[in-house]
């Protein structure tokens, strides 16, 4: 098996895992909709996936997106305590 086909297989497996996890999350969220953290992560994920130089898998991208979302929440809380938000 070539390196490329092995990487493609790994990427496909990661995509399937991410899809399964996404479906689990959607079931848990239910009618209440996504949290603010989820919304920030969606925004971050959109930006990460638009970057042509970003070449990690979808699972890694999602984990990075939530790290960015957590940073956004911290910045939001900090701005609110300073009267900037």
How would you describe the overall organization of this protein?
The protein is an all-alpha fold and 85 residues long. It has one domain (3-82). Helices cover 79% and strands 0% of the residues. The protein has three helices and no strands. It has helices spanning 3-29, 36-50, 58-82. Helix 2 crosses helix 3. The model has no long low-confidence stretch (mean pLDDT 80).
Q: Bin the strand percentage.
A: under 5%
Number of domains: 1
Shape: flat
* Sequence stretches where pLDDT stays below 50 over 5 or more residues: none
Number of β-strand runs? 0
What is the CA-atom radius of gyration, in angstroms? 16 Å
Estimated helix fraction: over 70%
Assign the structural class, choosing from mainly alpha, mainly beta, alpha/beta, alpha+beta, or little secondary structure: mainly alpha
Features:
mainly alpha; single chain; 3 helices; 79% helix
Topology overview:
Blueprint: H1 3-29, H2 36-50, H3 58-82
Helix pairs in contact: 2-3
Brief summary of the model shown:
By secondary structure, this protein is mainly alpha-helical. It has 3 helices and no strands.
